[in-house]
Write a structure and sequence with these properties.
Layout lengths: L1 H20 L4 H4 L5 H14 L3 H8 L3 H22 L3 H36 L2
Helix pairs in contact: 1-3, 1-5
Amino acid sequence: MHLIQGLRHFTTFLHGSFLRQCNLHPDDILDYSSPVYRMELMMTARMFAQDPQLYADIVLANAERRSLLLKFLAHHRTLARIIENNDREAFIVEFRNISTFFADFAERARRESGYLIYRLSERFA
């Protein structure tokens, strides 16, 4: 659990940092956001409304967690080559491999998240 918590918060940190770097202010993109992206954006902003020291402690907690995050970044560099090479087929192969990994959980997640998306879209319609 502690490794996954660090990974989740680090991913949110990356998302928020990238939006800031690109000067993509949330108020400017909310009107164009799907309910799913709106929810993701809200969760990202939520983290940054809290104590940075807490999140630094979570993300940088120990050598094992930092090692996992470095592996995560190395994996991103590997996947970035698909984008650099405009390799549509490699993207599709990786997508299918991930779909196989998630298997039955993906369908369950689609159903359960569908409810959340519906409720969120009702709220902001």
